[in-house]
Write a structure and sequence with these properties.
heterotrimer; A: alpha/beta; Rossmann fold; 2 domains; eight-stranded mixed β-sheet; four-stranded antiparallel β-sheet; 12 strands; C: mainly alpha; 0% strand; flat
Chain lengths: 335, 348, 316
Amino acid sequence: MTEPIIEAVDVVKQFPIRGRLGTSKALLTAVDHVTLSIHPGETVALVGESGSGKSTLGRVLLDLEKPTSGEVRFRGQGLESLTGPARQDYRRNVQVVFQDTGSSLNPRHDIATSVGLGLRYNLGLGQKVADAKSHELLRLVGLDPDSFASRSPLELSGGQRQRVAIARAMASDPDFIVADEAVSALDVSVRAQVLMVMKRLQVTRDLAYLFITHDLGVVRTVSERVVVLYLGQVVNSGPTDDVFGRPSHPYTKALLEAATVPDPAVRGRERIRLSGDIPSPINPPSGCRFHTRCPLARERCRTEAPELRAIRPGVETRCHFPEEVTAMTAEVAGS
Amino acid sequence: MADSLMEGSVPELVEGPLLAVQDLVVSARSRGKNIALVDGISLAVNKGEIVGLVGESGCGKSTTSNAIMRLFPSQSVRQTSGELILDGTRYDTLKPKEMSTVRGARIAMIFQDPSTYLDPMMTVGKQVGEGLRVHRIPGNHQARVVELLGLMGLPDPEGMVHRYPHELSGGQRQRVLIAAALAADPDLIIADEPSTALDVTVQAQILALLRELRDRLGVAILFITHDLGVVAEMCDRVYVMYAGRIVESREVHALYADPRHPYTAGLLGSTLSSSSDINELFSIPGTVPDPRAMPKGCRFASRCPLADDRCRTEQPPLVAVAGGESACWHHDHVAADMWRAGASGGAA
Amino acid sequence: MTAPTPEFDKDEALLAELPVTVPVLDGPIETAAGAPRRRAGADLWARFARSKPAVASLVWLVVVLLIALLAGAIQTSPPFSGGPEALRPPGTPGHLLGTNHLGQDTWSQLVHGARVSLLVGFSVAAAATLIGVLVGALAGFFPGWIDTVLMRISEFFQTLPRLVLALIIVALFGSSLLGMIIVVSILSWPQTARVVRGGVRTVRSAAFVDAARVAGMPAGVIIWREILPNVLSQIVVIASLDVAMAILTEASLSFFGLGDPNFVSWGGMLFQAQAYLRSAWWLAVFPGLAIASVVLALNLVGDGLNDALNPRLKER
């Protein structure tokens, strides 16, 4: 297999929680020894709920946060050791599309300015050339530059704004894009359009994506591989069809069954429903972190933290009893 | 008229609906002009029903729920026409003082983001009990609060009474909000995207809880959402809203199996289900028309493959179809896969 | 417009070749619907103009400004030239608002005093804004020790007692207009710094700032081009309040006799009016009204600006 374009190698990211008077009260471990690699042209989905650390991991890969320990490697080289042209190369090739929250585009700038940022700063192009190229980029994502270039983001719909965000990410012709909940805030009827733009760009430019999302429908549609996070740890990973088709971790199965299905005919179906809430990442449960909500939990799970291991080629899981997962039926677990 | 808890009773359809909204028009005042955000909609919720109001951003569904509660976030938005009728009595003309006996006591509301709707300075017990105090419900308030928290499935209800919202998780806060809404035993709950901000596994719990409350207490729910999966899980009947109007109103199974409006078919088709092939994806082209410049005829015509000249000049009324109503001149040409197969019949 | 580069041509060619199923609905390039919004400036004025008190106050401030600029022309006698007609009440021929104990014309002193007040007010606001924005932006953008150090410094300046500081400056440099401006600026900038710091911290966490970092923008450019424009509304409002506060502070310092004796100021007029409060009411009332009306007007304009720049608070 070709060399990965970007990797997280045993990354840990912790945040101090300030107590009163500014003293350090506790440590929040958002990302807990995660190793992940993405190869050119690949789409990997990073799935998890609140407290899973998925967004933080994305930010570490983008160098918006420095890891507490471990490192990020770009084309085999650690980020910290990159200087000058190598660093520029990283910045040009690793880009981001954020969620459409209303503040992913600067409301004070017009669309062309926002799109051209990478052209001006990552590529060092002059204003005029950047403007011309911004127009090209808008056309690339299906927006007419003459009518969009000088508008304010507030005048655009969610789907249009996300395509502008994609155009901005494409400015320096990157090899890897982190898509952090890129379609979550969009109306259903528009999501497909944005995903199609991203897919076409991937095919034509050999782009790799890390799709950070909580939406399993998106995961199935766009990604070849999926990594499931729970409280900062990888609990399951492998090819999407395999991980979802033959679940080897109770959390993955619970996630799959918790998703709503747009078909009232299957409404009464039997499915697992987890009880309790997601524990706080400041004070994670002992042993296996999922044991407080897991239908299969037993004494060993409370005391011994399972290791991440391969259960079949390509599929890894962090569970003491992965073979029992497929037979797991609808039970509401006690905590 | 608030009944005490009716455990185990089966909700029955009574003659008149519990809530009837008739020809509601809600307008916003902008630069001297009235712009209709909700343009003449009618809907009904029967006792013990879960009714869905589904639509995308800008369709007016949240404005509708605000109108039903008569609580608008802005002074420039008002109901300009239509009637709101609760259990046979009109209430949109009530004075504020009288209205406060309706809000909370007969119609309650739960919102999307529990963090912003719970007062961080008040304990859980105080907030849940507020409804009991304000509406002067007789009986032991403290006991009722504990009972409600237990009903919500919250652990250690007696201890929970003294906790503050920031000590709770998102799912727990939403349960507290629901408990507060139920305090004065309303007949109808308006749930405005109550599970959208929650994690998937927590959402499943909250939805199950709401269904259970309907089954055990007989409370009706008007469920407002953009999520068709949630609607399929929860609702008995569905209203589909587009550009300020109701375009389809159907019994839920009929809606999903056999949509009778192109917009509904488009919504259903563009929902990413777990088995989507990326090459089969589609979106509805075009955008929702600006409320300041609504087209003359059918509001969906500019995006619709079935649109013809009649559609562009005459607004279709709601007409009866199997299992409900649809507002489309070509409703019998609508098929669930019409967006994929291409337009047929009537396209000009 | 320059021609499309070869890279983008390659893109089109590739798209044509690849066996990717393109959805039926994938149509031509989308055009924006509706007319573009009005320019931001016209919008801003329209919103500001909705508040009658704000507009009236703005008019009044313009009047005061004109009076100050034309002071030399509209005086009835040189402000410092006294005369035998001392303590005359308003309405005395040749002395519209009366005279003081030295025979100096009150009206002429009033119009000249406007100059000092406005000069001090706007100079201080400019200086305080400059320093405050610099300190606040750095403190807000760089968390950790930079923030802590800068905020401790600003707190130090905030807790300085005005009078003591003014006395020290006067003692060291003599009482002068420049000294007055320096003193009041030192007292005013911490407030601006606090507001700017708060604003910068809020905007710093916005996604578009992260996007700018990922696009390679250096920190200084980010602060200047991405963050500060979004804090501008708060800066403008606090600056307008700065003017009001400066005028009041100058007046009170002059009232205590620490002002520049070479210039007439409203505060100085009040200083001199102390002895005659009962016998010559006009000596205190007119400068007092002047100060009060200008400060009130500045506050109302500040409110109007706040509402105009943050329209979400009032309407959807």
